[in-house]
């Protein structure tokens, strides 16, 4: 047992880095496309019926595909394993990701993006499940945080890179999706299938059961949180154009800075989790999202937008690790893939419906985009107050379940 534990710890660094890189592919799925929407609109708008509906689907369509397919991916991974599915999905991610650069019909581009989202669903579900499979207790929380930090860094880089490369043509950034092919040989060599290497893992508790209350709360929180979180990449370009900023580089930089700001939240999450517990962190992150959205809606200059997305990003950086960790701990080994698939589904469903929610608010209130964002900021503040009240009435909630004490 000691030798097995030594082998496990010796390879954890390589495994953690590889899984973090794989997880980061999902943020690349949307961040490189959002800055391209104005130029795609110029090309397809005059010649494509319903271009106004189809263009946003180029960004949010993969999120819908992930939301629908992630539970299925999790169910399959519980039966056939994670490694092979992850490798195949990474290959399909690269092939489907580059297709829009070669297609000339907007409908075909949207279809390719939906299929691309299915590959993303498998990648995100398998990577997150592997973290829960490989590591336990505090080690698991460390790698959850490492995953989120890596996504923030890589997403920030590619948001800016996509904007810069898109100055000449909106098609150019799509070739970056071929890069993940380089990860496949390392996945084959370094990753291992938990079911075939059970000696590397702690013994399975036959009495373990799903903790439904924290699981459902986690699903609802990530759903609503991503509605608020995705306002920046989807709506910020329109707000920037409204104040006279049209450069794709500047648009990409603003959203990239917001993603980079998530690092602040992610890096401070371990300390805040120990100080405030689960309820306190939920209250704080929802308050930060509320303040960031209010500032964004009322921004009149480019610098004010940058400040707003930074505050918003801090809340987003706290949200994913805080909710993902609690969901992981609520799931026993036997249904971990399915449970994490449900979390992934809720996460990306929130992304997909974010512009729908904003549009619905605009239609119902007969108002403009900034006012709709203010309404959502108020809703976020109300949820923050509820969590704060829960924290004050219930005392410091424990962020870790019984597993962390082991």
TrEMBL record:
This is MFS-type drug efflux transporter P55. It is a multi-pass membrane protein. GO terms for molecular function: transmembrane transporter activity. The chain crosses the membrane at residues 16-37, 57-77, 84-103, 109-131, 143-162, 212-232, 238-263, 275-296, 302-325, 346-366, 372-393. It comes from Marinomonas fungiae. Residues 15-398 form the Major facilitator superfamily (MFS) profile domain. It holds the Pfam family MFS_1. It comes from the Bacteria. It is found in: Endomembrane system. GO terms for cellular component: endomembrane system; plasma membrane. The keyword Membrane applies. SUPFAM superfamilies: MFS general substrate transporter. Keywords: Membrane, Transmembrane, Transmembrane helix, Transport.
């Amino acid at each position: 047992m000691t030798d097995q534990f030594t082998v496990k710890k010796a390879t954890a660094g390589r495994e953690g880095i590889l899984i973090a890189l794989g997880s980061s592919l999902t943020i690349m799925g949307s961040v490189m496309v959002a800055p391209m929407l104005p130029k795609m609109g110029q090309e397809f708008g005059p010649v494509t019926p319903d271009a106004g509906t189809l263009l946003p689907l180029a960004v949010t369509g993969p999120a819908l595909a992930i939301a629908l397919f992630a539970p299925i991916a999790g169910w399959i991974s519980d039966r056939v394993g994670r490694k092979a599915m992850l490798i195949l999905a990474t290959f399909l991610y690269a092939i489907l990701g580059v297709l829009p650069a070669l297609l000339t019909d907007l409908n075909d581009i949207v279809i390719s993006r939906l299929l691309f989202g299915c590959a993303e669903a498998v990648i995100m579900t398998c990577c997150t499940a592997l973290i829960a499979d490989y590591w336990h207790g505090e080690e698991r929380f460390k790698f959850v945080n490492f995953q989120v930090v890596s996504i923030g860094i890589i997403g920030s880089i590619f948001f800016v890179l996509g904007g810069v490369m898109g100055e000449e043509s909106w098609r150019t950034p799509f070739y970056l999706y071929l890069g993940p092919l380089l990860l496949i040989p390392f996945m084959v060599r370094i990753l291992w299938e938990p079911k075939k290497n059970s000696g590397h893992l702690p013994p399975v508790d036959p009495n373990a059961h799903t903790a439904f209350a924290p699981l459902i709360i986690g699903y609802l929180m990530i759903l609503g949180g991503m509605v608020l979180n995705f306002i920046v990449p989807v709506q910020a370009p329109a707000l920037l154009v409204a104040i006279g900023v049209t450069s794709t580089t500047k648009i990409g930089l603003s959203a990239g800075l917001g993603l980079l700001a998530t690092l602040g939240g992610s890096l401070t999450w371990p300390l805040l989790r120990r100080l405030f517990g689960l309820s306190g962190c939920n209250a704080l992150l929802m308050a930060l999202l509320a303040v960031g959205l209010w500032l964004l809606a009322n921004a009149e200059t480019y610098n004010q937008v940058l400040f707003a997305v930074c505050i918003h990003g801090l809340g987003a950086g706290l949200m994913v690790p805080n909710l993902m960790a609690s969901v992981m701990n609520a799931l026993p080994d036997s249904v971990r893939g399915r449970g994490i698939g449900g979390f992934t589904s809720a996460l990306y469903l929130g992304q997909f419906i974010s512009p729908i929610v904003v549009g619905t608010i605009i239609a119902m209130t007969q108002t403009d985009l900034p006012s709709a964002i203010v309404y959502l900021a108020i809703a976020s503040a109300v949820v923050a107050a509820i969590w704060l009240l829960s924290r004050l009435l219930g005392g410091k909630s424990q962020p870790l379940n019984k597993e962390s004490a082991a």
